[in-house]
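tool=predict chain=A
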Amino acid sequence: MLSCKETVLILSSSQELTFRQKLELRAHLFMCKHCSAYSNQLKALANQLKKSYQELTKTEPERVHELESKVLENLKRSNIG
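tool=predict ok
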C-alpha cells in the first residue's frame, strides 16, 4: 500500500500510472481522509485555474469588431498618406 508521502508525490506529478499504481492510489484515497481531501483540493484548484484562464483569454465579439475597425482605419490612413 502507498504511503501518504508517495500518494502526494503521485497526485502532484503528471506521470502516467500503471494499472496497479492506479489501484493502489484509489485504495489509499479511499482509506485516507487526509489524502482524499488533498486530492479534492488539487482538483478544485486546477478547475479554478482553468476557469480563470478561460475568462482572461476570452475576447468578446464586440471588442473584436472594434479592433478590426481600428486596424482597417489605420491601414486606410497609411495607404493614403
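Helices lie at 4-12, 19-31, 33-57, 61-80. The radius of gyration is 24 Å.
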